[in-house]
Specification:
This protein has 426 residues and is of the alpha/beta class. The chain is built from 14 helices and 11 strands. It has a 6-stranded mixed beta sheet, with helices on both faces. The chain binds nicotinamide-adenine-dinucleotide (NAD). The site of nicotinamide-adenine-dinucleotide (NAD) has 25 residues, from helix 7 and strand 7. It comes from Ornithinibacillus bavariensis.
Length: 426
């Protein structure tokens, strides 16, 4: 049992190392294609700053548990760093590094005045009480307080973190700062300075990309069969938006299994029954595995859960003609190559999921100016941003004859490389 667990964690660490090295390889390729010298790659291949913290928490049973957390700041040449905080048992330093690089690329793609950051704590919030979670959230903010702040590094939610956790973190920072600091973190509840449309922003952005990709393939989203892997923040809103548009959502999943029905699932019922961690399949007996779901019949496949889901082992069996990555890093480099060779249109994570950081930026702008926008204003601005980014990347892919992922990296890395040069760093 112990040996099995150790083998699992070695496998997970290797997967995360692959995620980082494949991200670095695409960044290198993008910089070379843009004609930048090698020292620019040397600067951008790793975060500028990486902090590891240990957080002691008194648990409900009276024991003290020490949690490990990370905060990575990839590059702040353009502006403060920005990126979510993940609470997950599989968090590693390598994963956080890769996630911070992707945030830099996303900020470049949607042209925000930010660099990328990311944080994570190794924990399983599904096994923790509300009180323990609050203590951990506050402890993490105290531990990283020296390097974060509204003009330094602005956190946000990610896997297994939500607006309540953002509220505790904002409150802790405000107490230390002795000043109300809503601009310290985004993804807050509306009453604490959150933005309308933030909660569903990632899914909205993905929906816009799906519609644009379908147009390029002369496919109608109405009537198209869609599979969404993951039923959390990104996956559940996305399923709802696509269902409301007339798409047939034939499959969904969570960490415990998947549901598939070729006639279409009852999305409203599933949304009603899901818990706050995006779990719903536990209520059913007729589930299939996530692996089976990814290879099931559909027109559009949206991985919206975790990394490394489409690999060289299953890329040949994917039935969809469009794959849109709502999750960060769901497709390996080998699988990207296979899907592209098979003529499948792959819309990469750094573009498709950039709606979240875009509306996080809108939230921060509203906090700084103290004047708040309506949901319609936010949606209009998000729509314009995503359409512009999608078309810039699609056109780059066409004119430079590269896949959408490399095109997205080329668009995403340019501003950061230029800013680093103007500052005289390289
Ligand atoms: P979430 O915590 O709300 O939901 C995660 C979902 O994935 C849950 O349904 C969970 O059961 C499922 N899941 C967890 N582990 C799994 C596994 N091993 N196999 C299959 N399913 C698993 O998280 P979220 O915010 O929806 O994020 C999902 C993905 O989208 C992540 O990759 C995240 O980085 C990315 N993303 C999220 C946002 C955002 O604003 N929420 C923005 C950009 C990117």
């Amino acid at each position: 049992m112990v040996a099995e667990k150790a083998a699992d964690s070695t496998k997970e660490a290797k997967k995360q190392m692959d995620v980082l090295s494949s991200t670095q390889a695409v960044v290198k390729n993008a910089l070379e294609k843009l004609g930048y010298p090698d020292e620019v790659y040397e600067l951008l291949k790793e975060p500028l700053r990486m902090m590891t913290v240990r957080i002691p928490i008194k648990m409900d049973d009276g024991s003290t548990k020490i949690f490990t957390g990370y905060r990575a700041q990839h590059n702040d040449a353009v502006g403060p760093t920005k990126g979510g905080i993940r609470f997950h048992p599989d968090v590693t330093e390598t994963e956080v590094k890769a996630l911070s690089m992707w945030m830099s690329l996303k900020a470049g793609i949607v042209d925000l005045p930010y660099g990328g950051g990311k944080g994570g704590i190794i924990c399983d919030p599904r096994d923790m009480s509300f009180r323990e979670l609050e203590a951990l959230s506050r402890g993490y903010v105290r531990a990283i307080s020296q390097i974060v702040g509204p003009t330094k590094d602005i956190p946000a939610p990610d896997v297994f973190t939500n607006s309540q956790i953002m509220a505790w973190m904002m409150d802790e920072y405000s107490r230390m700062d002795e000043f109300n600091s809503p601009g310290f973190i985004t993804g807050k509840p509306i009453v604490l300075g959150g933005s309308h449309g933030r909660e569903s922003a990632t899914a909205k952005g993905v929906t816009i990309c799906i519609n644009e990709a379908a147009k390029k393939r002369n496919m109608s989203v109405k009537g198209a069969k869609v599979i969404v892997q993951g039923f959390g923040n990104a996956g559940s809103f996305l399923s709802k938006f696509l269902h409301d548009e007339g798409a047939i959502v034939v499959g969904i999943s969570d960490a415990y299994g998947a549901l598939y029905d070729p006639e279409g699932l009852d999305i409203d019922y599933l949304l009603d029954r899901r818990d706050s961690f995006g779990t719903v399949t536990k209520l059913f007996n007729n589930t299939i595995s996530n692996k089976e779901l990814l290879e099931s019949e559909c027109d559009i496949l949206v991985p919206a859960a975790v990394e490394n889901q489409i690999t060289e082992d299953n890329a040949h069996n994917i039935k969809a003609s469009i794959v849109v990555e709502a999750a960060n890093g769901p497709t390996t480099m080998e699988a990207t190559k296979i899907l592209t060779e098979r003529g499948i249109l792959l819309v990469p994570d750094v573009l498709a999921s950039a709606g979240g950081v875009t509306v996080s930026y809108f939230e921060w702008v509203q906090n700084n100016q103290g004047y708040y926008w309506s949901e319609e204003e936010v949606e209009e601005k998000l729509y314009a941003t995503m359409i512009k980014a999608f078309n810039a990347i699609y056109d780059t892919a066409q004119t430079r004859q590269v896949d959408m992922r490399l095109a997205a990296y080329m668009v995403g890395v340019r501003k950061m490389a230029e800013a680093s040069r103007f500052r005289g760093w390289v």
